[in-house]
Amino acid sequence: MNKQQGAGLIEVLVTVLILGTSLLALAALQSKSLQYNHSAYLRSQANILAYDILDRVRINRANMSGYSLTMDAGKPSGTTTAQVDMAEWLTNIETMLPGSDGAVACLAASGLCTVTIQWSEQNSSGEASEDQGSFVYTTRI
Length: 141
Prior knowledge:
Distance between the termini: 86 Å
Number of strands: 3
Largest sheet: 3 strands, antiparallel
Number of domains: 1
CATH topology: Nuclear Transport Factor 2, Chain: A
Strand content: 15-25%
Number of helices: 2
Structural class: alpha+beta
CATH class: Alpha Beta
């Protein structure tokens, strides 16, 4: 009986160690899950914004070439429908996606429009990371 003293305490310590490690792994899993969920939300917002500008182009199909905009270009300041649409669209992108920018390339001859939206991903603490999210959508108008 004297040789068995302390065996119960060692078993409890090992159990606490395993339980602590498991809880840390669960916390890391939850953190990654939240991060991936937020990334999916941003991608879905980018999809909605791409459809928004493509619907605006379809409405103003006669002026399709007026909807071309390169990445890092400033907001158009004109009064034509295409320029107002592009300015509103870029404002919506900046509002809904962190550190974002957008580009549209419409070719009137083929009727193809390509929308590209880029944004900054965030890490689990909500700070901007070096990861860049992007969404590219091409359709025939």
